[in-house]
């Protein structure tokens, strides 16, 4: 008899975006003529930039020739891409990495979900709340998160609330936690972390022998030169942190699939007997067993984001989205809403006027035909907030804002 992994049964049935789609469909059935604008889902909308498209065409042509054909690549990724990453994303910030500390992946979601395989099932985990759901759910699937209570909290997860009261700066946990997930710039709140604040986390980790899993998927959206793009800008982070990057939001790769993970060689974790084990060779072993690499074409596409043209074009698209963010932020503030984020991230986190997240979602849908994302879907501290994204087109974003203004002023 095959026994099922019952930990899966503890996961909530419904996935946030499926619930949203259901409610939008219900609206369409009763209002078939209404045009709905989504400022909800976290996918990009602008096409890939010309430099990337050119690289994809060229890589496809390579594959058509005997000399240029690429079969299985190295599990850790091609040197051409890892060298470009080192040279562009780290050396200019004074961060030195060995090439074999860089692991090319097929997007950050897989690795942020898979990385927990490196640690024992009974480690404690801590998350800032609200948070990208992958971190907790991937731990829940092997039983590490415990069980989900009525209050929406998992029994074995330490939650560090981020809300208007603490200005979205999470407090260090009052006890030691084995593993902490951080995501900056943050999805969903759009908050960023200063070097001083990040240093506190690194120091906490070093002192408590805690591992930090740092998700930097939105680092390309940082506008303020004082905000760190990588946790390795903080001294000591090489001993306590794994970092995840993605080209999805940086360069519109949500459908191309490519990112990378940094596992420093100085990073170790303990056995029950007290022996220190480096995690870099373990992750390599894991990848060689379970992963056959990211496609050659995707890696060539990612490499193209670092060419002179590529950098310029990628920056342009980010500027386009950040202009949307600015429009949203300005208009919402003018309308008297309390809003956060949107300055170094493509997300605007808005406080409702006393409604629950889902209540606000429905009022906005029926009142203005605009879709947002209920904050409670990202964790208990997200209740009473909603998320708007800057990933739409400028025209649709403008129209959504007009509708919202009309709805508010009615
Ligand atoms: C979008 C996103 C990612 C990236 O996912 P990919 O698998 O690279 O497309 C990672 N982390 C967060 C928080 C995200 O929002």
Question: Which tags fit this structure?
Answer:
single chain; 36% helix; globular; 15% strand; 7-stranded mixed sheet; binds pyridoxal-5'-phosphate; 4-stranded antiparallel sheet; 410 residues; alpha/beta
Secondary-structure topology with pairs:
Blueprint: H1 16-30, E1 37-38, H2 50-63, H3 79-90, E2 102-105, H4 108-114, E3 125-129, H5 134-140, E4 157-161, E5 179-183, H6 195-208, E6 211-215, E7 241-246, H7 247-251, E8 259-262, E9 268-270, E10 276-278, H8 279-290, H9 296-304, H10 308-334, E11 338-341, E12 347-351, H11 357-368, E13 370-371, E14 373-374, E15 385-389, H12 394-408
Parallel strand pairs: 1-13, 3-4, 3-5, 5-6, 6-7
Antiparallel strand pairs: 2-8, 7-8, 9-10, 11-12, 12-15, 14-15
The protein binds pyridoxal-5'-phosphate.
Pyridoxal-5'-phosphate (PLP) is lined by residues 42, 107-109, 112, 132, 183, 187, 215, 217, 246, 248-249, 254, 259.
Q: Choose one word for the global shape.
A: globular
Strand percent estimate? 5-15%
The low-confidence parts are: none
Computed over alpha carbons, the radius of gyration is 22 Å
User: Helix fraction?
Assistant: 25-40%
Order of helices and strands: HEHHEHEHEEHEEHEEEHHHEEHEEEH
Which structural class do the helices and strands define?
alpha/beta
Question: Terminal Cα separation, in Å?
Answer: 62 Å
Spatially, the strands of the biggest sheet line up as: 2-8-7-6-5-3-4
User: Are any ligands bound, and if so which?
Assistant: pyridoxal-5'-phosphate
Q: What's the main sheet like?
A: 7 strands, mixed
Number of helices: 12
Could you report the average pLDDT, rounded to the nearest whole number? 96
Q: Give the strand tally.
A: 15
């Amino acid at each position: 008899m095959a026994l099922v992994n019952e930990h899966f049964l503890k996961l909530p049935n419904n996935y946030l975006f499926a619930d949203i789609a259901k409610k939008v469909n219900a609206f369409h059935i009763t209002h078939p003529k209404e045009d709905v604008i989504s400022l909800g889902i976290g996918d990009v909308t602008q096409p890939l930039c010309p430099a990337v498209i050119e690289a994809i065409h060229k890589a496809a042509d390579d594959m058509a020739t005997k000399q240029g054909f690429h079969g299985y690549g190295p599990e850790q990724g091609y040197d051409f891409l890892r060298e470009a990453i080192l040279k562009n994303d780290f050396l200019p910030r004074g961060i030195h990495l060995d090439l074999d500390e860089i692991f090319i992946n097929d997007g950050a979601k897989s690795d942020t979900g898979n990385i927990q395989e490196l640690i024992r099932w009974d480690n404690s985990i801590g998350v800032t709340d609200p948070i990208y759901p992958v971190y907790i759910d991937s731990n829940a699937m092997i039983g590490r998160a415990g069980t989900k209570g009525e209050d929406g909290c998992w029994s074995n997860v330490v939650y560090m609330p981020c809300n208007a009261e603490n200005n979205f700066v999470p407090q260090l946990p009052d006890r030691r936690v084995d593993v902490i997930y951080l995501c900056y710039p943050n999805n969903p709140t759009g908050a960023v972390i200063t070097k001083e604040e990040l240093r506190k986390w690194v120091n906490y980790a070093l002192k408590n022998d805690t591992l930090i899993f740092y998700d930097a998927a939105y680092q390309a959206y940082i506008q303020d030169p004082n905000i760190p793009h990588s946790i390795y800008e903080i001294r000591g982070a090489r001993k306590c942190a794994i970092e995840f990057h993605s080209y999805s939001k940086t360069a519109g790769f949500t459908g191309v699939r490519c990112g990378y993970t940094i596992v420093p060689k100085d990073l170790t974790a303990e056995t029950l007997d007290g022996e220190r084990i480096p995690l870099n060779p373990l992750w390599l072993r894991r990848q060689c067993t379970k992963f056959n690499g990211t496609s050659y074409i995707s890696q060539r596409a990612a490499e193209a984001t670092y060419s002179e043209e590529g950098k310029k074009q990628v920056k342009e698209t980010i500027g386009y989205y950040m202009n949307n963010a600015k429009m949203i932020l300005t208009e919402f503030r003018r309308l008297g809403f309390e809003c956060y984020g949107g300055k170094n991230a493509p997300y605007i986190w808005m406080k409702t006027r006393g409604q629950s997240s889902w209540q606000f979602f429905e009022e906005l849908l029926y009142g203005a035909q605009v879709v947002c994302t209920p904050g409670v879907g990202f964790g208990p501290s997200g209740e009473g907030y909603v998320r708007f994204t800057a990933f739409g087109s400028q025209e649709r974003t403008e129209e959504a804002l007009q509708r919202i203004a009309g709805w508010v002023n009615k």
